[in-house]
Amino acid sequence: MQFELNERAIDATLGTLRKAATSLKAHDYQWRIAQLDALFQLTEDHEKAICEALKADLNKSYTEAFVTEVGYLQSEIRHAKKHLKAWMKPRKVGTPLMAFPGKSFHYPEPLGVIFIMGAWNFPFQLTIAPLVAAIAAGNCALLKPSELTPKTSALIAELIPQYMDKDAIAVVEGGKEVSTYLLAQRFDHIFYTGGETVGKIVMQAASQYLTPVTLELGGKSPCIVDKHCDLTVTANRIVWGKWTNAGQICIAPDYVYVHESMKDAFLAALRKAITSQFGKQPQNSQDYGRIVNSNHLARLSNYLEGVESIEIGGEIDAESLYFAPTVVLNPPLTSPLMQQEIFGPILPVLTYDSHDQVIDMIGSREKPLALYLFSSDEDIQQRYLAQTSSGNMCINDTLIFMTNADLAFGGVGNSGMGRYHGKSGFDLLSNLRAVMKRPFILDVFIRYAPYNSLKTTL
Ligand code: NAD
């Protein structure tokens, strides 16, 4: 789909948003609640249309689209509404003796206009969830959904102006050309979700105005299966985490490390879990997604070139963008499959002898977005907590941690910067203004010049 760059229209939209950002209107509690209510209403009134757009763009089943996008956002909005009053309150902090009598606070205030660039794998949720945080914090926002999922992008552009305050929240559709133009404009914060390459472009563009950025990126998220685990539950949870949305999830387990002695049992458990979740022919399953487009299908097919150890799957149907749930055993660590983020339905399974070997390997690579450990041994849990680093960690499960709005979600190092969801999103898009209030009494003179010897000895 071709998008036109209409610079005049964008400039006019940005002018309107900036004006609204400088008015007090957007700062007010009632305005924020009204916008959150309107957003909730939008998701309720158009649940079916949103799920249909996600079906058209990514073949998401209705249930998956509801749970991971619409329903997910509804609970994020409910959570924000429930806690908004408390989040907005000035936060009292201590005051040192030097400033006695006095009081000190952090006053959360809006930043201004937030530019939100969404990604295509959860094209509704990843564009709207940052908006929930932006509204809660009293900001105006410009949304740019991903061009790779055009049905969802068009629906967002159609619905947002129908429900939200048009002066404060706007949508611009487009691809690289539009993004490039937008990134050259002045914003108060840029919230980008996507890959590392564009992440660097965003950060470079933001430096022109010293605009703060949030980068929600990806990476190779490891999953370790220790000897002390329930293999059936482990396999079910890994299959769910890996093959929801056909593996196109930033926090999907990218590869699994399983103890050498459990290799065969683990592969058998994986096979069983794939069949029980998607049937013997995943291509016929209503619940198995498709690859977003032929470029990504070709990228993923290339990973399998020359690979001999395909244990499960491997079938591809280019016409319907189908890529089977695929498991590859022990690919070389130097292969593209083990060097690049897979972001698709291929799961490399590697075997290990000792946890030292796994921890060293993880430590030698960029810090991942998520790390999964399946082990009931608390010492092993503690070792991975202490000796590895990742944006997020989930012990004995996979994607489920995303349902907790109290957990601040984000990356570290190459997997991103900045955290959101719940209060962390509110704080991220607020200026926590430091305020000290002092009375006129007790004006201790020794701090003023001239600094004579009496004062310095005090
Ligand atoms: P994408 O292609 O949808 O790009 C994201 C945005 O960047 C789009 O709005 C697009 O218009 C813009 N863009 C693309 N090329 C550009 C250019 N040259 N200049 C300026 N803007 C440009 O997303 P993607 O990168 O294919 O997404 C996949 C990646 O996103 C994976 O690495 C995945 O792990 C990551 N991801 C991270 C999260 C998270 O929350 N951390 C969530 C989803 C995806």
Explain how this protein is built.
- The chain has helices at 7-22, 29-45, 47-58, 62-88, 125-136, 150-163, 176-183, 196-207, 231-243, 263-278, 294-304, 336-339, 355-363, 378-387, 422-428, 453-457, and strands at 91-93, 103-110, 113-117, 140-144, 169-171, 189-193, 213-216, 222-225, 255-259, 310-312, 316-317, 322-323, 326-329, 346-352, 370-374, 392-395, 409-410, 416-417, 419-420, 430-437.
- The protein has 458 residues and is of the alpha/beta class.
- The chain folds into two domains: 7-217 and 415-435, Aldehyde Dehydrogenase, Chain A, domain 1, CATH 3.40.605; 222-403, Aldehyde Dehydrogenase, Chain A, domain 2, CATH 3.40.309.
- Strand 4 (140-144), helix 6 and strand 5 form a beta-alpha-beta unit.
- It is globular.
- It starts with 6 loop residues before the first helix and ends with a helix.
- The model has no long low-confidence stretch (mean pLDDT 95).
- Bound molecules: nicotinamide-adenine-dinucleotide.
Briefly characterize the structure.
This protein has 458 residues and is α/β, with parallel strands linked by helices.
Features:
458 residues; alpha/beta; Aldehyde Dehydrogenase, Chain A, domain 2; 7-stranded mixed β-sheet; 6-stranded mixed β-sheet; binds nicotinamide-adenine-dinucleotide
